[in-house]
Amino acid sequence: MHTFSLAEAKAQLSKLIELVEGGEQVTITKRGKAVVRLVKSDPPRKQVPSLAEHRAGIQYQGEPAAEFIRKMRESDRY
């Protein structure tokens, strides 16, 4: 972990970003007290497809579920 004063951080921002991209943690101090910690951010999340797209991909099975269940109940299998 690297520590820089606020004045040093202002002057060397590009260097701090390179350190963080490399996996290091950087702490910035103000008057000797830690006020900021720079860490590498997580990769962005994958976009979830919309519900409309999901529904469009579902194939119709031929009969409604209620009819299918009714037939199962009336048959010997149930």
UniProtKB/TrEMBL annotation:
UniProt cross-references to InterPro entries, sorted A to Z: Antitoxin_Phd/YefM, YefM-like_sf
SUPFAM superfamilies: YefM-like
Pfam families linked to this entry: PhdYeFM_antitox
Role description: Antitoxin component of a type II toxin-antitoxin (TA) system.
Family assignment from sequence similarity: Belongs to the phD/YefM antitoxin family.
Name of the protein in its database record: Antitoxin
